[in-house]
Amino acid sequence: MRGRGINYDTGFLPGGHTSRESFDPETVREEMRVVAGELNCTAVRITGGAPPETGRTSTGARSTSSR
Known about the structure:
This protein is of the alpha+beta class. Helix content is about 35%, strand content about 15%.
């Protein structure tokens, strides 16, 4: 059995500008629903360059754990 995965960007900081200005936990939950339900992914790699205190990576991780 092979897994099907995707990379989820929580916001990188190339050149001092974030690749994801808006980061809303409800949007993350909806995007994770799409990843699991519509794209049929069984794995999500969460990446980003935002400082840990923003909570972006942990928000993404919590959103995947409910699937």
